[in-house]
C-alpha cells in the first residue's frame, strides 16, 4: 500500500474516532437527562415534563388528568398520558395541578417616601415563584412625571427578572405629553392599564380634573383605569389632626385615614368612571365602606372591578397598636389594614363575586427603613410583603374555611387577572397551548412561612405559618421543588398586554344609546 493509501486509512480512522467520541458525549448527556436528577431542567434547554395523576383545576372545570409540557407550553391535558423516555415525571396523585398564580399588584424597587422597596425584580420574583406565583404585574412609575422615561427605567429594573411579568403605568399629572406617552405605551409597549393615585398629596396624587382626563384617555385607548382610592386632601388633614393630638406612633396611621375616606374616594372614582362610561379597577379594596361602593355600582350594572389584597383579607389592625415599634410599623400600608370585621366582609364579597381577584400590593420595607418614622407615623414608608404568601393565604382563608371552591380559587388567584388584562388563555389556564406556568398544590401539606426562611429581602413577615405549594413550573421549567429554588437571573420575559379586553366590549353601544337618548339639541325658533 502506498503512502496516500495509508493517509486515507488514517483519516478514516480519525473520523471514526471523532464519531465515536460524539456518540459517547451525547449518550452521557442523555444519561443525565434520563436519570432524572434534581437539576434535570437546568441541563436541558426545553425540558419535557409529565405531571401525572393530579386533579387539574381550571376556573370553570376540574378533572383528574395528566399534563404534558414541552417547549415551555402545555401540550396535552388528558387522562393516562404514556410515560416516555427523556420525560421527567412528577407524581401529583392526591394533589391539585393549577395555573400558576398571577399577582396583579406589586411594587418591586419602587422609590417611595424617600426609600426604595427592598425587593428588586429578582429577589421579589424568587419570593413569588417559591409561593406559586408565576407572573406579576408591577406598577411602573413616571420619572419626574414623564411616563416614557418611567417605562424605560422599569424595563431596566426588570432585566434581572427570572419569571414572566407585565407593567401597569401610573399617571401622576396631566398634560399633552402624558396623553401622548399613554398612547405610545398602549400601542407600542404592551401596557393596557394606568393607575391614578387619589391619595399621597404632594407626591403621586392627582386632582379630579386630572382623573377625568386620564379616564377619558384610557377609554379611547382601551386601557383599564385603576385607582388608589383615598381622599388625599382629607388624609393630610387627618394626619395633622392625629399628630397634633400627640399620637406619633404607627397607630396614628389608621386613625388618620379612616374607612370613610376610602369609601368617599371609591364612590367618587366610580361615579366619574360612570360619567365617562369607562370600566374601572379599584386596587386594594380594604374596607366595608369601599366595598359597599363597588357592590352598589356592580349591582347597577357598572363595570367595576374590585381587588382586595391578602393583608386586607387575612389581617386586622390590632398589631398597629403593638407596644413594639418594629412590630407595629410592619403593618403600615395604605389604605390601612382595617379593624376586625372588614376582612370578613371582604372575604364574603370575594366568595360571591362582588370582588373579583386577589393581589398583594407587595411593597416591602425592612425594619431599618420603617424606623424612619419612629417619631412620626407619617414618615413610615407605606407597604407590606405578600407576593410569596398570597397563594397560601388565599387557600387558607378562602378554601380551607369552606368559603369558595377550588375552581374559584383558580379564578381569583390567576384566571380573572389574565382575563381582565387580556392575556387569557396564554396565562391563567392549564390548557393545551397555554404557557407552562403550573403549580402543584398539596392541600394536606404545611410549608412553614417565616421571616427566617422566606425569599423576599424584607427582614420581617406579617404572615407566619401558612404554606401549600409544593412545585412551581415557570416557562416550562421546574423552579421550586423540595423547598429549593432553581432560577436563572435574566430569564424572565416581559408579557405585553393588548388593549380593549373584554371589559370594553359593548361600551360603544352604551355610548350610542346615551347619544340617541338625549333628544338634543332642540331646534328652537328665535
Ligand atoms: O402602602 C402601600 N400600599 N404602598 C404601595 C403604594 C400603593 O399605594 O399601592
Ligand atoms: Zn395604592
Ligand atoms: Zn400598591
TrEMBL record:
InterPro entries tied to this protein: Amidohydro-rel (IPR006680), Hydantoinase/dihydroPyrase (IPR011778), Metal-dep_hydrolase_composite (IPR011059), Metal_Hydrolase (IPR032466), Metallo-dep_Hydrolases_sf (IPR050378)
Keyword annotations from UniProtKB, A to Z: Hydrolase, Metal-binding, Signal
EC number assigned by the record: 3.5.2.2
Signal peptide: 1-27
Catalysed reactions, as listed in the record: 5,6-dihydrouracil + H2O = 3-(carbamoylamino)propanoate + H(+)
Necessary cofactors: Zn(2+)
Pfam families membership: Amidohydro_1
Residue stretches making up the Amidohydrolase-related domain: 96-479
Domain of life: Eukaryota
Stated family: Belongs to the metallo-dependent hydrolases superfamily. Hydantoinase/dihydropyrimidinase family.
PANTHER family xrefs: COLLAPSIN RESPONSE MEDIATOR PROTEIN, HYDRANTOINASE/DIHYDROPYRIMIDINASE FAMILY MEMBER
Protein name: dihydropyrimidinase
Organism whose genome encodes this protein: Sphagnum jensenii
